[in-house]
């Protein structure tokens, strides 16, 4: 079987990469500043919503329903998209998906395509595959452009260039665009606008991801900020959308939940500047050819794990990254995957599907189990429980190098975690007070755990206890 | 060999995911709404927002400009002194226009959002994307209180664009900066 490009070929295991990242003081400074800002703003955006917990519960339930009826809903989506003039393709893995997209580009004689930021296409390594096939993919999202022009790798789900500060971005733009520009964010944005304008107006094929697809109407939804998404979704003649099979919602009404949860969780806004919704092809408006590529790439395997499958509820908001003390210290690239941070630690190894792979096996240990990720997750993914579960599976998989690497990762986090003991407090307090594995009510700050009824307790075993038992 | 479609569906069925609990929609489906809240929320995005009794009067400020007017824009909005650009328009012509004037399908008070659906006075999506300035007229009765109320009023199979403030990015040090690829100035005129 071909290796899953969700992890980067030749990436060091987590403890090695983390060690290197920690030595980079500029990186840590950039990250601390950015995540600190967004944490405070997200908290304010969420505090405004008196029904936030009920929205989270609904988000969780809708996504669980999707996972339970995935076969029926996918077939329904296919029917609705086809009925409106779209063409649906299915891909078992990254290789198959890349081949489908490359063939579609070739059929349109496209040498260059414009792209809207998409985790699914990053996961399958589409840009590299297209390039190998003679098609140049131009990233149009500002942060993706910074990464692409800097010959760099992404380090965050939402803001792939979060590890770069404004003066580093200025340097990259001056070098690659050949323009003089200041390090004022507004000037940097203007430089990107000018650089991409002609491409938007002339490119014939665009590639996008999807935040949601509505099964009963066939509508596809993309949330964005800059307008590069609208450019790609509106101006070209052909649009190819690549989407994980779990990105469904059953009905149009269900979007009312996610259009409230996602912007506040990701960019801490009441609403992101632009959300586009389209259904198949609309005569006289936008691309007249529409292809939807549905990718599995490890998702059906993840679905078989009754504990791990909740990772498929993820709506890629990145809130869990922004609150994670391990992520803040190591940065996204240490995780060696397009999915970093807490969600990456549970999703990447499951998509790879091979816990004897040392790099994948080290990821579930890239956490101190403090529980902050669960607390902010808009679809209530119990990341600490999945981490504990996957750790047990790593030990069981008996890949000897994998296991020893995992132990090294655990040791690393253990050492580091004493430095951010404070972050662990809320979690251990909740565990201490839980009765029958459920938490009923807690004083603040623990009350933030219990503001929705019947919150499952964080994993009974604290990281330290687990470590003492398992280090052998 | 089975097709990718058959194999993926087979794998899903083989996973035997148990039925999920029914969805409890305990969240608020209605918001307080109102012109004031809507105006306040639009302004928070650093958009220009004005409550006007008379649209043509307010549009006189556009004199001397080349403004796109989609099909269905009321005749009285097309005030004198403005060069009104009407369809069919090429991408290049849209790119050179100074701005675009539209109505909207629905607005959302809670989030300060306007929604276009390509209907009367809105045109195809490129019209509101390429010009650097967008002025959108919102009638008070088009303002829904909440996101759920707004979605209920919309037809999902039409091409929809939800707009909340001018084009922006949070990609540089996670701070919102206005003005990237979409219109850098958004003006909302609320007619009461
Ligand atoms: S796991 Fe939850 S918090 Fe993390 S990115 Fe996914 S939805 Fe957001």
TrEMBL record, chain A:
Name the record gives this protein: L-lactate dehydrogenase complex protein LldF
Keywords annotated in UniProt: 4Fe-4S, Electron transport, Iron, Iron-sulfur, Metal-binding, Repeat, Transport
Domain LUD: 76-281
NCBIfam families attached to this UniProt entry: LutB/LldF family L-lactate oxidation iron-sulfur protein
PANTHER family attached to this UniProt entry: LACTATE UTILIZATION PROTEIN B
Occurrences of domain Lactate utilization protein B C-terminal (ranges): 396-469
Molecular function terms from GO: 4 iron, 4 sulfur cluster binding; metal ion binding
Domain 4Fe-4S ferredoxin-type: 311-381
Pfam families reported for this sequence: Fer4_8, LUD_dom, LutB_C
UniProt KW Cell cycle keyword: no
GO biological process, one term: lactate metabolic process
TrEMBL record, chain B:
Source organism (scientific name): Lentzea xinjiangensis
Classification via InterPro entries: FTHF_cligase-like_sf, LUD_dom, NagB/RpiA_transferase-like
TM segment ranges: none
Protein name per its UniProtKB record: L-lactate dehydrogenase complex protein LldG
Domain named LUD: residues: 91-191
């Amino acid at each position: 079987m071909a290796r899953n490009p969700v992890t980067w070929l030749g990436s060091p295991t987590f403890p090695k990469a983390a060690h290197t990242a920690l030595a980079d003081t500029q990186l840590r400074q950039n990250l601390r500043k950015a995540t600190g800002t967004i944490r405070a703003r997200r908290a304010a955006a969420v505090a405004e919503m008196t029904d936030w917990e009920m929205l989270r519960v609904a988000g969780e339930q809708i996504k669980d329903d999707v996972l339970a009826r995935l076969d029926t809903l996918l077939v329904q989506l296919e029917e609705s998209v086809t009925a409106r003039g779209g063409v649906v393709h299915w891909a078992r893995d990254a290789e198959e998906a890349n081949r489908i997209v490359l063939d579609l580009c070739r059929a349109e004689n496209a040498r260059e395509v414009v792209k809207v930021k998409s985790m699914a296409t990053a996961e399958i390594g589409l840009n590299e595959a297209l390039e190998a096939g003679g098609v140049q993919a131009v990233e149009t999202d500002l942060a993706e452009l910074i990464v692409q022009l800097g010959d760099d790798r992404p380090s965050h789900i939402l803001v792939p260039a979060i590890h770069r500060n404004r003066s580093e971005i200025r340097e990259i733009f001056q070098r690659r665009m050949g323009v003089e520009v200041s390090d004022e964010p507004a000037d940097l944005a203007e430089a990107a606008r000018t650089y991409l304008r002609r491409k938007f107006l002339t490119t014939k094929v665009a590639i996008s991801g999807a935040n949601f697809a509505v099964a009963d109407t066939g509508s596809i939804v993309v949330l964005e900020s800059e307008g590069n998404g609208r450019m790609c979704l509106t101006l070209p003649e052909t649009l190819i959308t690549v989407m994980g099979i779990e990105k469904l919602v059953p009905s149009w009404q269900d979007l009312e939940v996610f259009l409230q949860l996602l912007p506040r969780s990701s960019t801490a806004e009441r609403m992101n500047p632009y959300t586009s919704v389209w259904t198949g092809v609309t005569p006289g408006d936008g691309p007249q050819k529409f292809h939807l590529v549905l990718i599995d790439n490890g998702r059906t395997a993840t679905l078989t794990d009754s504990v791990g499958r909740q990772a498929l509820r993820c709506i890629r908001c990145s809130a869990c990254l922004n609150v994670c003390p391990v992520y803040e210290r190591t940065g996204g690239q240490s995780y060696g995957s397009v999915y970093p941070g807490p969600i990456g630690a549970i999703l990447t190894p499951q998509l790879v599907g091979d816990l004897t792979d040392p790099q994948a096996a080290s990821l579930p240990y890239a956490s101190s189990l403090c529980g902050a990720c669960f607390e902010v997750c808009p679809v209530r993914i119990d990341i600490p429980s999945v981490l504990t579960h996957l750790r047990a599976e790593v030990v069981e998989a008996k890949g000897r190098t994998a296991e020893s690497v995992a132990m090294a990762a655990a040791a690393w986090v253990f050492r580091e975690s004493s430095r951010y003991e404070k972050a662990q407090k809320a979690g251990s307090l909740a565990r201490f007070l839980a009765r029958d594995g459920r938490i009923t009510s807690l004083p603040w700050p623990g009350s933030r755990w219990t503001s929705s009824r019947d919150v499952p307790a964080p994993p009974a075993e604290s990281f330290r206890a687990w470590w003492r038992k398992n280090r052998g | 060999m089975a097709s990718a479609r058959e194999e993926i569906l087979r794998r899903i069925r083989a996973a035997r995911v148990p039925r999920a609990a029914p969805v409890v929609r305990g969240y608020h489906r209605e918001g307080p709404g109102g012109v004031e809240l809507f105006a306040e929320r639009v302004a928070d995005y650093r958009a220009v927002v004005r409550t006007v009794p008379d649209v043509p009067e307010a549009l006189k400020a556009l004199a001397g400009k080349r403004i796109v007017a989609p099909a269905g824009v009321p005749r009285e909005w097309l005030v004198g002194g403005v060069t009104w650009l009407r369809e069919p328009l090429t991408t290049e012509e849209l790119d050179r226009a100074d701005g675009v004037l539209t109505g909207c399908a629905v607005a959302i008070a809670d989030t300060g959002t306007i929604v276009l659906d390509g209907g009367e006075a809105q045109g195809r999506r490129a019209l509101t994307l390429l010009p650097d300035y967008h002025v959108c007229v919102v009638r008070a009765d088009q303002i829904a209180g909440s996101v759920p109320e707004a979605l209920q009023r919309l037809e999902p199979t039409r091409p929809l664009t939800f707009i909340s403030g001018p084009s922006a990015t949070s990609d540089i040090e996670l701070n919102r900066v206005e003005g990237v690829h979409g219109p850098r100035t958004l003006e909302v005129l609320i007619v009461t």
